[in-house]
Amino acid sequence: MDNEKTHFGYQSISESEKARRVADVFDSVAQRYDLMNDLMSGGMHRLWKAFTIQRSGIREGSRVLDVAGGTGDLSLAFAKRAGKSGQVWLTDINNAMLARGRDRLLDKGYMLPVAQCDAEKLPFPDDWFDIVTVAFGLRNMTHKELALGEMYRVLRPGGRLLVLEFSKIWKPLAPAYDFYSFKVIPRIGKLVTNDSESYQYLSESIRVHPDQQELKALMEGVGLEGVEYFNMALGVVALHRGFKF
Ligand code: SAM
User: Fold this and answer.
1) pLDDT in tens for each of the 245 residues of the chain?
2) Closest Cα to atom 9, ligand 1: which residue?
3) At 226, which CATH number?
4) Distances, alpha carbon 28 to alpha carbons 32, 41, 127, 177, 197, in Å
5) 40: Cβ below 6 Å to ligand 1?
6) Could you tell me if 115 and 141 are in contact, meaning their C-beta atoms sit under 8 angstroms apart?
7) Is this structure's pTM higher than 0.85?
8) What span, in angstroms and rounded, lies between the C-alpha atoms of 98 and 166?
9) Distance separating alpha carbons of residues 24 and 10, to the nearest angstrom
10) Is the CB of 136 under 6 A from ligand 1?
């Protein structure tokens, strides 16, 4: 499977090289990741994440898995709501992102279980979590169906999967959005992280990611039911939600 070609932004590269280059991106941006999110989105990523929490059905005692959780924004918000009887796992494939996430959570007084793992091979039992989330992570995964299948497997019957991801913007705004993505974002990346390439990759990876309908179909394909999506910022971002019954 390793010799198959896959996307890395607009480039076509081998699957093993993609894993290495995605790791390079997040090693490079980890320290400034949160600042960049605020700058690029004008703080809007906080609203998108808040909406995700609101649609998750989180309760005191819930078991939650945050896949590709990175620096831990969603994990923290879930942990506040799941309380002491709940269980919130912060997971990611990248050690630099995870270490930063763990430190941020500790600074805020939360010691959550943390696991470094690939979303395509989750080290959790079947039918375990009430809620599984992946925010801005699916786009970077090589085998999206495999990863979604794993998320489905670890959900308990009645549980829900939430996928927050960049999506397809309302067409009339596409030229302005392209200008912002390819002319402005890499420059902010250069100024803040001294790395414009990682942010060029971000913009390209959004363009080759499945759109709203395609992602819905992928989720249905792994067995999720009642799949619906909510566009935010005119489709810049969409939250997809599906259930396991
Ligand atoms: N969820 C966080 C957020 O919303 O701020 C972090 C999102 S960050 C853009 C994407 C994350 O996906 C990175 O931390 C990266 O390491 C992780 N990632 C990429 N491929 C992965 C994989 N196959 N398995 C697990 N995590 C992965």
Assistant:
1) 456 899 999 999 999 899 899 999 999 999 999 999 999 999 999 999 999 999 999 999 999 999 999 999 999 999 999 999 999 999 999 999 999 999 999 999 999 999 999 999 999 999 999 999 999 999 999 999 999 999 999 999 999 999 999 999 999 999 999 999 999 999 999 999 999 999 999 999 999 999 999 999 999 999 999 999 999 999 999 999 999 99
2) 136
3) 3.40.50.150
4) 9, 19, 35, 25, 10
5) no
6) no
7) yes
8) 21
9) 17
10) yes
In a domain, 13, yes or no: no
Residue 132 lies in a domain: yes
User: 89 in ligand 1 pocket by Cβ < 6 Å?
Assistant: no
148 lines ligand 1 (CB under 6 A): no
Distance from Cα 66 to the centre of ligand 1, integer Å: 10
27 lines ligand 1 (CB under 6 A): no
User: Which distant-in-sequence residues (6+ apart) come within 8 Å of 104 by Cβ?
Assistant: 34, 71, 72, 76
**Distances in whole angstroms, Cα of residue 49 to Cα of each of 73, 127, 162, 165, 204:** 8, 25, 11, 10, 22
Q: What span, in angstroms and rounded, lies between the C-alpha atoms of 67 and 117?
A: 9
CA dihedral 20, 25, 29, 33 (to 10 degrees): -110
Q: Give the residue whose CA is nearest to atom 4 of ligand 1.
A: 135
Owner of token pair 């959790």: 124
194: in domain: yes
The total of structural domains in the chain comes to 1
Q: Is residue 2 part of a domain?
A: no
Q: One-letter amino acid identity for 155?
A: L
- CA-based R_g, the chain, Å: 17
Q: Under a CB-based contact definition with an 8 Å cutoff, are residues 41 and 65 in contact?
A: no
